[in-house]
Amino acid sequence: MSIQLSAVHWVYLVFIVFIMTLLIRRRDTTMICVTGIFALGLLATSTLSGSVSGIFNSFVYATKELMSTIMIISIIVAMSRILMVTGINETMVAPLTRFLRTPAMAYWGIGLIMMVTSLFFWPSPAVALVGAVLLPVAVRVGLPALGAAMAMNLFGHGIALSGDYIIQGAPKLTADAAGLPVSSVMEASLPLVIVMGLVTTVTAFWMMRRDQRNGTWRDGLVSVKGSSGPLSAGAEDTAPVLMSPGLKKGLAIAIPLLFLLDVVAMFILDLQGGDATALVGGTAVLILITITLLAHHNQGLEKITSYLIEGFVFGFKVFGPVIPIAAFFYLGDSAFTELFGNTLPGGSHGIVNDLGVALADHVPLNGAVGAVTLTAIGAITGLDGSGFSGILLVGPIAQMFAAAIHSGAATLTALGQVAAIWVGGGTLIPWALIPAAAICGVSPFELARRNLKPVLLGLSATTIVAMFLM
Percent of the chain having pLDDT more than 70? Predict the structure, then answer.
């Protein structure tokens, strides 16, 4: 059945175009998102007070929707901080260093360790946890520092973050934006993440070895200052805390086992989405409290709060720019009716769904066109260096295309998520690469240049695979 589009639909579409234009030009989108919310509120309520109040209420709505994601990342960062201060992170990965005997083993070893660590701790803390310990070992066996940075980027900010199967922050955002269950997006993303990961990491390794043989390899070594990594903040203010070797070793064994038990519990109890995130988050809080009390003794009570504050500061710093963007795009679904009342035309199923139906009535679409479009949009939205702001856009657009071609909603959503995070989450945009570049002492611009061809080849291969999966 054809849907009659109103001025609200057209204004929403116009602002999507504005936002994408700003992203392409690498400009901030906060003001345009707030303007869009104001304009939609004015059309819906026909009152100045209603539209102004709608700005604040949409921020509150977006914050409530994002709160579990903000919370889990903040808690993980806080826990990672105490692991760094006590040196438990070094003890955790020390046994693995004996396997890094050649440059190839160092590349794949650091990458796989980074991937696993990132799944549980998120990539930014994982860079500090893994890089500080394994980088000297890798360089000693002949792997260039830039090669180690590539491995950490591609496996951590690429493979682990684009799937995010343990913390489930990324799939929750895209699933909510597209109006889909988190489980469906995660299942659809699995083959795409595998293809993307294999193509990029193998290509990057082959190109590195080729350039080393041909004498065209550039190390890109530089002193990178001003790291924006979560564990750099306040690092100079906290002296290392001494713990007995036996206690440190016991905790280094217990922590991975606890998270492994969480994974087992997820499968046995069929926990997904918010329930799985809550289990990981609660475990991280208990680990943080236990280690802080053991490490700081009489000051433990105060230090627990201090570490949590560090984590929350980082969490809201990361998601501060995301909230206004999320506030606008949530209006494309049920948030509009909740905030401004049922003012859409009769038979409407939300702004985004209505646009998708209208698109199907006027434009011949197919799976191939949809896949290429979602990859391009995901890559464009990643140009601001924040993969999380991009996935809030690909969700509604994937929903529009799926409504138009009557299939592939989960696959298109997952494809947009993969493209947005690989480009903007820390593999191609120089200012998003600073934490890994700082740890390895290389230029973020040289690191982005080395990642460019592998990532572009990976996106092409993943898009083709997505066409067959729809």
Answer: 90
